[in-house]
Amino acid sequence: MSLAMTPAEREAFLAEAHVAVVTVADDDGRGPLAVPLWYDYRPGGEIILVTDADSRKTQLIRRAGRVTVCAQTQEMPYRYASVEGPVTAIEDTVTVEQRWELARRYLGREGADGYIEATRGVTDRMCAIHVRPERWLTRDYTKAGG
Questions:
Q1: Is 146 inside a domain boundary?
Q2: DSSP H helix total and E strand total for the chain
Q3: Residue 62 belongs to what domain range?
Q4: pLDDT at residue 111, rounded to an integer
Q5: Which of 98, 2, 97, 82 is nearest to 49 (CA)?
Q6: What are the C-alpha distances in Å from 86 to residues 46, 74, 106, 129, 130?
Q7: What is the pLDDT of residue 91?
Q8: How many domains is the chain built from?
Q9: Residue 66: helix, strand or coil by DSSP?
Q10: In the chain, where does DSSP find H-type helix?
């Protein structure tokens, strides 16, 4: 019995609100950079990462043109989806509304309001990175039974 998720299962899992670890190659002789990020995803679509446009992470993503995004559960039995793919676009401007929608995904309506108010000054520094899922590695240990 395979513990791999089916295509429908993996897309539904990735569409849930998990903090992802985004990994990108570093060509300066260092190991790959791995950082936790909020993301947005709709089944069949692209993964969207909203982050600081001037960060080391964004500079590396622009250079590499590919990332790996890994989302996982924190409780047993564990489930995860690791997705590698090309960056298809980087939007150099992000609106407060885009940031609010992403915050609402993770914090709910009231939490998103507070988060946006507390971080309103950073919106002009943000960008949206689009990633097309290309290669998937998944495990769903709920399929193991017991």
A1: no
A2: 3, 8
A3: 7-141
A4: 97
A5: 98
A6: 10, 27, 25, 10, 8
A7: 97
A8: 1
A9: strand
A10: 7-15, 56-64, 96-119
Enter the pTM of the model. Answer: 0.94
pLDDT score at 22: 98
**Residue 65 scores a pLDDT above 80:** yes
CATH of the domain at 87: 2.30.110.10
Mean pLDDT of all residues belonging to the chain: 96
Name residues whose C-beta falls within 8 Å of residue 72's C-beta, 6 or more positions apart in sequence.
18, 78, 79, 80, 81
Residue 133 to residue 114: CA distance in whole angstroms: 32
In-domain check, residue 113: yes
CA distance 68 to 86: 9
In a domain, 1, yes or no: no
Give the per-residue pLDDT at 14. 98
Q: Is residue 2 part of a domain?
A: no
Stretch 23-30: mean pLDDT? 91
On the question of a cis peptide bond just before residue 77, with omega within 30 degrees of 0, the verdict is yes
